[in-house]
Amino acid sequence: MPAAVLVGAQWGDEGKGKATDLLGGDVDYVVRYQGGNNAGHTVVIGDQKYALHLLPTGILSPEVVPVIGNGVVIDPGVLLSEIDGLAERGISAERLLISSNAHLIMPHHKALDKVTERYLGKAKIGTTGRGIGPAYGDKIARMGVRVQDLLDPGILAKKIEVALTEKNQVLTKVYNRRGIDPAAVLEEYLAYAERLKPHIADTSLVLAKALDEEKFVLLEGGQGTLLDIDHGTYPFVTSSSPTSGGACAGAGIPPNRLTKIIGILKAYTTRVGSGPFPTELTDEMGEWLRQTGGEYGVTTGRNRRCGWFDAVIARYATRINGVTDYFLTKLDVLSGLERIPVCVAYEVDGVRHDEIPMTQTDFHHAKPIYEEFPGWQEDITSAKSFDDLPPNAQAYVRTLEEMSGAPISAIGVGPGRDQTVVVRPLV
């Protein structure tokens, strides 16, 4: 059985939760491999909607083992709140495994995230203020607190003391904010430890054994390709690697275990936060896409910026991730349009670019070059097969497939679990 990676092929919010849930019946393990509670997946089952932030979407499938990998940064309070919220709805998290090597988001990370964004003013990145970036920063600086530290109160106390010796200086003397009490933080996190202890595991070893036993492991990232710390629209990116290359490091499995890389594409484009967005629509059509598509952040509730499909970005995502199959979501949102523009290239200072410009400056000045395609008026939300789609909808899908450079194997025609047209099996 394969190990497959599920990656966002735009700026996140493409509908990865729906794709993961679709595969749930075939999957043995679902692994979240990066990010924190700045990302979110929405899954609709019947008339029930589930918004997941840290928990892998596999938590909703009773036979699946959900895993939070070492590449994730975890706010334990948020995680336990999410677990409790699902328990109230009859969904158990007893199968959940958490990597002992994952890093913890601490109170000083959240405090510094919020205050630095405020001080940046117009130059702000557009973070969620949840401490994700500072937690990853401390991880790289080798000052992080890991999940395994919850199991040793002595080490935990020492790490908190060392971290706050520096961070309190920054908070009080640079930003004129109140310092954080180390004893209070230790008490809070030891309480988290009691509840999280049964879930902590050497998840890399667990996954290696599962793959040796020919179990199917699905790795899911948060955010999307254009938010990757290395390959995204830097500096308006996340602090980790949501691309397929980050999946191996963030889950602790080698690259030769991967056999499928499934990219998630929305039938148009959205992004949240600051940064360049060539096809963004700031007019009535952009608002129509937002309202019709329900484009509001799962985690933050922020309005998503909306625009037409960008084939340049899709080609880039195919190349960077090695996408083998695409899942195209929200095709139904475009129903009723007479014509549908698609960005096929950019124009920068009179020069055509068929690929993303090399420099940040050029990308910021990129103007979309559009081709228009005929729309369709029919309601496609009850379509069960590709042939059920109107001819113009079929042609639109085939056009995006050709421009993206990888086959579109599944199509979302509505938010429900059963509103998916499978063109060819994803696994």
TrEMBL record:
Q: Which reaction does it catalyse?
A: IMP + L-aspartate + GTP = N(6)-(1,2-dicarboxyethyl)-AMP + GDP + phosphate + 2 H(+)
**UniProt entry tagged with the keyword Cytoplasm:** yes
- UniProt-annotated binding residues for GTP: 12-18, 40-42, 304, 330-332, 412-414
* Residues given in the record as substrate binding sites: 298-304
The main enzyme category here is ligase
Q: What does UniProt list as catalytic?
A: 13, 41, 139
Instruction: Tell me the Gene3D superfamilies matching this sequence.
Output: Adenylosuccinate Synthetase, subunit A, domain 1, Adenylosuccinate Synthetase, subunit A, domain 2, Adenylosuccinate Synthetase, subunit A, domain 3
> Mind naming one GO cellular-component term on file for this protein?
cytoplasm
Any Pfam family from its record, for instance, is Adenylsucc_synt
- Cofactors: Mg(2+)
Matching SMART domains, A to Z? Answer: Adenylsucc_synt
Q: Does the keyword Translocase apply?
A: no
Q: What is its EC number?
A: 6.3.4.4
What this protein is reported to do is described as: Plays an important role in the de novo pathway of purine nucleotide biosynthesis. Catalyzes the first committed step in the biosynthesis of AMP from IMP.
Q: Which family does it belong to?
A: Belongs to the adenylosuccinate synthetase family.
NCBIfam families, per database record:
PRK01117.1, purA
Question: What is known about its subunit structure?
Answer: Homodimer.
- Quote the protein name from its UniProt record: Adenylosuccinate synthetase
Instruction: Look up and give the organism this protein is from.
Output: Nonomuraea fuscirosea
What gene name does this entry carry? Answer: purA
